[in-house]
Amino acid sequence: MKLLEGKTVLVTGASTGIGRAAAIGAAQHGADVVINYHSRDEDAEACIAAIEATGQRGLAVKGDVAEPDTAKDFVAKAVEAFGKVDVMVNNAGICPFHAFLDMPVETFERTMRVNMHGAYFMVQAAANQMVAQGHGGAIVAVSSISALVGGEYQTHYTPTKAGVHSLMQSTAIALGKYKIRCNSLLPGTILTEINKDDLADDAKRTYMESRVPLGRLGAPEDMVGPIVFLASDMAAYVTGAALLVDGGMFVNLQ
Fold first, then answer.
1. Model pLDDT for residues 61-86, shown as the tens digit of each residue
2. Which residues form the Ketoreductase domain (predicted)?
3. Which of 37, 120, 143, 161 is catalytic?
4. Of 15, 78, 178, 232, which has fewest CB within 10 angstroms of its CB?
5. Domain 8-252 carries which CATH code?
């Protein structure tokens, strides 16, 4: 059963990791998919090839989500290519691990601009297009378990993920009258480019795995089902919600 048949889905930060898995998963469920990516041209091309291998159409649009105009350009090119926007998956994010006391201003501000500002302007651009179309839509933002718990080397990152979660709560209220649903996903530790260096240490990885009741760290593909569900009509009465996708890590932290 293809849950996104006939829909146009936009995914930010989709050349690798969760975004890539979400983009390909959306195509497997019948959607045409437009991806945003920052710099990895070959990875973006490979993602589009995987989308097209499902029989769906794909388009890659390069751009830095930290720049507000990137969002407008991304949505405009999606509409030009496929005629509409039904779903926005806001996924782009960075987490350059660093201690708090000597956090470089540039690292803090770049993390804020990509994760929080980028989410705001992408969601706003997609919502404006959905309102103009007049038939509603779905926005899914990838937040993090870090919206709920702290991290010693993530003092710049965790506030952005709490902000993304809060943004979905507020936009759910602001956009409900337009039949636009807004929900967030809170992944636990998912093996992606963001944390591959941090988890290259075998002892740390084993420790992290020991905290997960399901006994393993997550893979990007573990996010596909929850994203597709929230994007689909199966979640027609779900808005302003947050879904933990963490193998049970959060409830096992005490």
1. 999 999 999 999 999 999 999 999 99
2. 7-176
3. 161
4. 178
5. 3.40.50.720
In this prediction, residues 2-30 reach a mean pLDDT of 97
Instruction: Say which residues have a Cβ less than 8 Å from residue 13's Cβ, sequence separation at least 6.
Output: 19, 36, 37, 38, 65, 91, 92, 93
Domain boundaries, the chain: 8-252
First to last CA, the chain: 39
HSE-up of 124 (CA within 13 Å, CB side)? 13
Helix/strand/coil for 225: helix
Q: Is 161 a catalytic residue?
A: yes
Total length of the chain: 254
Residue among 7, 15, 143, 144 flagged as catalytic: 144
Strands 180-187 and 242-245: parallel
Structure pTM? 0.93
- Please indicate whether residue 170 is annotated as part of the active site: no
